[in-house]
Predict the 3D structure of the following.
Amino acid sequence: MKKVMIVITILLLTLSFYGCSLTTPKVSTTTFPTFPSFSSTTEILTTEDLRINLINEKYLELETSFPTEISEDVILPNITDEDYEVKYYLDETLLIDNNLSYKPQSFDETIEVSLDITYQEKTLSFSFELLQLRDEDLFNEELLNQKFLEIIDEIRAIIPEVIFSDMTIPEIDILGVELSISTDKSYIYDNRLIFTFPENDEVINLAVDIEYNREVRTVSIPVIMSDFSHLPKIPEIYILTDESLPIETKEEYVYGYLDLFSYDEFNNSILELGGARMGIKLRGNSTLFMPKLPYKIKFEQKQEMLSDYDQKDWVLLANFADQTLVRNAIAFNMSNGLNLDFTPMVRFVDLYINGVYQGNYLLTDQVEVSSNRVNVEEGSFDIDTGYLIEYDYRLYDEGLDVTEENFFLVEWIPFVIKSPDISDDNYSHDQYLFISSYMQMVYNTLKNHESYNHLIDEASFIDWFIVNEVMKNVDSGYSSVYFYKEKQGLLKMGPVWDFDLSSGNYGHLQEDLRGPEGWYTARYDKNIFFMYLMEYEGFRTNLKTRWNEVYEEVVLKAIDNIYSLVDMIARSRYLNFSQWNIIGTNSDWYTSPEILALDTYEEQVFFLVDFLNKRASWLNEAINDF
């Protein structure tokens, strides 16, 4: 018994001497950032190996010195006790002298460092995580790179791969971004890449300089300029006259047949009208003295002409004096946006007569009374029936004593009665007296500044006035000025008509009237009805109200749509001006020096857009100063 006690005592003293516990030590498992985690990879902990606890204790002391984040090179902590050895690893690579190198990059990154602690040939492995902070310069550079990539992607998304006409350079509405674009072929004018009508597809490289945050980067974007054969076709009208007779007068029809084709997106033809019997003659007044002639068509039976209604009479406007070809279309579109009772339709066509190409024409309505056009009563014996009349000073050119027009005078202004027609069975002289007396009453009322509400429909007068003043139409006080009156109704104005000589395109006006500023229609020497109306405070107030209602959504929108119009007829206008080589060369009584100085189609279009923008701006200021 005594011998057993001695053995136990010796054992206890031995354990006490080595500071050992009879329990098994535990490896702590912690998570960053409080305590990094570690794990042993060498052997299972046992109570026999007292070194494990000692290594664990040293690790716990060491981990308090581990960095939680770095933004530069750091020396990882070591154990001062020479009996211990510490080795650090990053991605299984030994860190020399415990040096953890900072790796500059544009983002924060969590990295894992492993370490081995060895004591008396016993090794335990641990690991901990720390945050490597981003390099701010690289981060800002990455942000900038990303911004440029976003800008480039946005530019690529809105630049078409293939173009079929002049292309407006897209505007990127990003704060602080400015673009400058050049091209290796063709050229850019008025912020538009000019289409050169190549015979074969041609690749145009756009060099886009992008300036952002005081840095400029360039990207090259290829654009295919389509060959001529694939340019979209507009509808085509083919007319064959009997025995190929020429069309020479506005008095007599030449008869023949008409075919009308439209085209789908692949330029496949669609027969809209085939072999329709019709008559064709010249129409117009001053345009009859121009080389490219306008025409009127009358079918034997009513026909649809790219329309959703049928009529016998249709008009082909030549637009010879308008070297953009679109002034009438702009005015008609503006009228349509104002919802006037009737606006002539806009359909561009290529016209062929007896196999000969005539050029680009505007297919539109005849100004006449019908349910689809000027919709007033017709064919009645009543004196207060429907009327369509035209204010037309051209009768003086023809001669009042020789004209065959049925007209009357109001203060020397000729008014032609278009409906009821003098040849109609229902027409009577009483109707003549009624409408002439009515117009005289309107004139006298306006001149005397009396109330006109029982005589005229002011809203239609205002809308008609807006279209003609925006376009600064030379004829707004001369001819093609239409009025109509419904049975027992008020006098209205419309439809709008004849705008080829407008918007700066009039050589016969003195210089001070050709520019985009100043009132035109409401002058004593132009349209005296509107001169008197503008003297009414109520008219000016209502004009101001209506103008502000339609300024952006109708007026400016019609101007913004100009490029869409000219792009739509790209192929046709190329053929037209190949047939009629007049841009920069045609000098006649109607050609202003400003128009003659423009040598290209693009310059003609820019002149028109610039004129109308300045005109609209001047009117906006003048009307809102009422």
Q: What stands out?
A: Residues 507 and 593 are 7 Å apart (CA to CA). The chain is about 30% helix and 25% strand.
